[in-house]
Amino acid sequence: MSVADVVGEAYPSALPTLLVSAVGGLLAGTVLGGMEADLAAVDGLLVLVPAFLAIRGSVYGSLGSRLSSALHQGLVSPTFEPDRRVGAAALAAMLNGVGATVFATVLVVFVLPALGRPVAPLGTFLVVAVVGGLLAGLALTAVVLVVVFVGFRHGLNPDDIVGPAVTTAGDVFGMVALLAATRLALAVT
Q1: Which of 19-33, 115-129, 152-166 has the highest mean pLDDT?
Q2: Could you tell me the pLDDT band of residue 13, with boundaries at 50, 70 and 90?
Q3: Of 124, 142, 159, 182, most Cβ neighbours within 10 A?
Q4: In the predicted model, is pLDDT for residue 88 greater than 80?
Q5: Which residues have a Cβ under 8 Å from the Cβ of 18 and sit 6 or more positions away?
Q6: How far apart are CA 96 and CA 100, in angstroms?
Q7: DSSP reduced 3-state for 78
Q8: At 153, which CATH number?
Q9: Number of H helices and number of E strands within the chain?
């Protein structure tokens, strides 16, 4: 297969997803811009935002890759029927996402004071991390399943579309979940 063949095959399926990714990035930035008061109310929250979003992209991108590989190998079928393998992979992604976010949160709470920066209480940050991680995780699990299974059923290679789709959805749903979790944390702590 020549380079031209590979490019001709990859671009038609990947280019629309990349364009949607650009629009999604703008939406996530708009949500972040609307969080100005919340960011001011929770000292140190802005430091957590990049880690929170990166964790979503890494964990759920990996879930998409696992499911894509399982489809190519015939280990799972592209249906929305209950499947032990798919359920286990989704649960592992949720646990990894929340666990990594809690770890990043603890780092923020201990590192910022060492640098002489103000930081909100650990309890506030933990509510943001756990609730935000769960909300974003549920949304992203659904996005991954739809993108991988529906794309595969329509003859697209999920490997070409899952990365940009999950990155975009991770940014958008991650920011919305972070906003909701922050407002909840401010209300209960």
Answers
A1: 115-129
A2: low
A3: 182
A4: yes
A5: 164
A6: 6
A7: coil
A8: 1.10.357.20
A9: 6, 0
Pick from 171, 176, 154, 151: nearest CA to 17: 151
Span 22-43, pLDDT tens digits = 888 888 889 888 889 998 999 9
- Answer whether 25's CB lies under 8 Å from 171's CB: yes
For 189, which DSSP code?
A: -
Number of domains in the chain: 1
Nearest to 189 by CA among 133, 130, 113, 127: 127
Show the tokens assigned to 138: 């549920």
Which amino acid, residue 144? V
Residue 152's pLDDT is: 93
**Residue 75 in this model has a pLDDT that exceeds 70:** yes
The total number of residues written for the chain in this structure = 189
Domain that holds residue 143: 3-188
Task: Specify the long-range contacts of residues 142-149, CB closer than 8 Å, at least 24 apart.
Answer: 143/60, 143/169, 143/173, 144/60, 144/63, 144/64, 144/67, 145/67, 145/80, 145/86, 145/90, 147/64, 148/64, 148/67, 148/68, 148/71, 148/78, 149/67, 149/71, 149/78, 149/79, 149/80
Token look-up 């910022």 returns 112
